[in-house]
Design brief:
The complex is a heterodimer. Chain A contains five helices and no strands. By secondary structure, chain A is mainly alpha-helical. Chain A has one domain. Chain B is mostly helical. Chain B has two domains: 55 residues, no CATH class; 107 residues, no CATH class. Chain B is 55% helix and 11% strand. Chain B has a three-stranded antiparallel β-sheet with strand order 1-3-2, covered by helices on one side. Classes of the chains: A mainly alpha, B mainly alpha. Chains A and B meet through helix 1 and helix 2 of A and helix 1, helix 2, helix 4 and strand 2 of B.
Chain lengths: 148, 166
Amino acid sequence: MGSDMGLIVKTMARATIPLIGIFGAYVISHGHLTPGGGFQGGATIAGAGILFLIAFGINEAKEKINKSLYSALEGLGGLVFLAAGMLGLSVAFFYNTLWHNGPIFNGEPGTLLSAGYLPIMNLAVGLKVYTGLVSAVFAMALFRRWRK
Amino acid sequence: MSFIVAFIWSFALWLVLTAGTNGMLWSLEELIAGIIFATIVGFSTRNIIGEKTQRFLNPIKWLGFIVYAVGPLFWGMAKANLDVAYRVVTGKIKPGIVRVPVDLENEAQYTILSNSITLTPGTLTVDACPEEKALYVHWIYVKEEEPKTSEPVAGSFEKWARRLGK
């Protein structure tokens, strides 16, 4: 238990974890413009979390990964998705009211603030996928021992 | 302080990714979104990025990295690739793992030197041991079994790594 990688892997992980994180955020937030979206970007950021877990070892990860926070954020992602779907409830469920007459997210197609509720949903799905995957992998890494 | 380093490091990648949204430059909304996301990423990774990383915000150091990448490193890679092609054709190899004593202080210097050694074909860093100030390098053609410095293995890379990671 508690094994971690050598010095080179750790130093490279220190440098690349912020880069993977911001790239995942880019994929999520441009889900309506470029290939990718909530799931793909969330899985990318979860890759950064798994890199952290593998490079720095389980003991370091135990201090940094907070179970309640991740659990709450996963729930929040689902709730925001549902709330975005409810926005146009006076017409229909999942009616994209932000795009048709909403105050924001109705810019010119191709710009960042367009496509109505899609960016919000992508962010919600990305948050949910990231926290869910990291929690799942971390729980497996904490599995008590290989054999009794 | 390390929050600012992580913020700048991730915001620079965001700028590279989103360039061209307003002509050749960036539209305002992309910049604001970048600041928000880079703040989140920088805040989450501020304890991971390491201590004293603000020394890499020095523009003179960036210049040093560029000069190193296009100068000694590129030249060393070109030379070593031709050498490996020669060894593939003729089959003259004498492989072995040698212990290379190095005189470096911090993790960044070890990483730069190890990655440079691995990038030049024919040599491959197996392990870096800062406690005994040595690298273990797998060499395709061992010229010296117990080198006293890193000169026969890595050329001038150790000097550069010491300067760039300081």
